[in-house]
Amino acid sequence: MNEKFATLFETVELPNKVQLKNKFVLAPLTHVTSHDDGTVSEDEINYMEQRSQDVGLSISAASNVTDLGKAFPGQPSVAHDTDIEGLKKLANVMKKNGAKAVVQIHHGGAQSLPNWTPNGDVAAPSPISMKSFGETEEHHAREITHDEILETIKAFGEATR
């Protein structure tokens, strides 16, 4: 191995004292393999297990914190207690070979797809029409309400428990 790359393979300590076995990170990838309801699928588990083998840190795909924030088909969900069992399995395979596991929590905002949100409702910081994730026609996002902002903030917090 070229000596200039040796430090990539050294253990690194993060500011919170968590140690990573090396400096390689599996970045969050949109793999579109969760079930339609956002629960973890076997394909997703296999995908992440294979890619987490030699990294120090493995980050999941963007996982919606609310149903209103679902941005794409096959997106994993952290919005419901029923998601926890599959997420535990996913975390276990991500950590199987010594990587630390992180879930990327997410709200799609204007890019949420009406076909995947309750009643086709899309909320964003301001009203906008746009195409997202392979759409052939624009969809409209309405302005998010103050109460929905508070609910979304709470959902991000709940997703971390």
TrEMBL record:
Keywords: Flavoprotein, Oxidoreductase. Residues 8-161 form the NADH:flavin oxidoreductase/NADH oxidase N-terminal domain. Pfam families: Oxidored_FMN. GO terms for molecular function: FMN binding; oxidoreductase activity. InterPro entries: Aldolase_TIM, NADH_flavin_oxidoreductase, OxRdtase_FMN_N. This is NADH-dependent flavin oxidoreductase. The lineage of its organism: Bacteria, Bacillati, Bacillota, Bacilli, Bacillales.
